[in-house]
Amino acid sequence: MELLSETPNCRSKIVASSALPYLVKILDSHVRDFQERAIKILCNLSSINNVCSDLVSLNCIPRLVAFLCDETLARHCMVIFKNLLNNQEGRASITSTTGCIASIAELLETGNREVQEAAVTVLLSLCLQSVRHCQLVMEEGVIPALVYISKNGTEKGRAGALELLRILRDISHDNEQGSYGADLVTSEDASNSSKENKSSSKTSRFLGFFASKKKK
């Protein structure tokens, strides 16, 4: 089946044969060879868009996270995650699965150059989707590792790391500007409020003085 899954024309037939649930179930086995074969097949099948929704419904992502510590399998898992990011359900599952983004970010430091490249590709794809995703990635403290990869990674890894650093820098800058703007608004509001209070106080004193003069 692994060889068949490498042929684009055969992938839809494999999916139609209801093989996905069995492949995902193999991930729970304790036979390393079977697990590796299943992940490679899932990697090939994940290029089919509707398969991504099936993988999410089969709770595949939490299972794959457990294999990210295996350098051989991590690269295939990264390809699956990259394909899942093209699917709304896949994106939601990746960002909501406990430890998923953290485990991917960890590969930036622990993986070999090929795995680092794959992790950068996934995180870059994730950050291109929304500001919220950028914030989730930044929370994992990825900047030092990205700086290192931008200088020492593969050619694609260096380019991806530089692009990701640029995006995160822009997001961070926008957040700082927003915070600074909010502080200015708060300060200005406080100043205006103080001026209004002083003006109101002066007006009250003037009206009181005017009223007393009128009585006399």
From TrEMBL:
Region (Disordered): 176-203
Cell inner membrane in keyword set: no
Top-level taxon in the UniProt lineage: Eukaryota
InterPro entries, sorted: ARM-like, ARM-type_fold
Database matches in Pfam families: KAP (PF05804)
Keywords attached to this entry: Ubl conjugation pathway
Protein name per UniProt: Uncharacterized protein
Organism: Rubroshorea leprosula
The organism's taxonomic lineage, starting at the top: Eukaryota, Viridiplantae, Streptophyta, Embryophyta, Tracheophyta
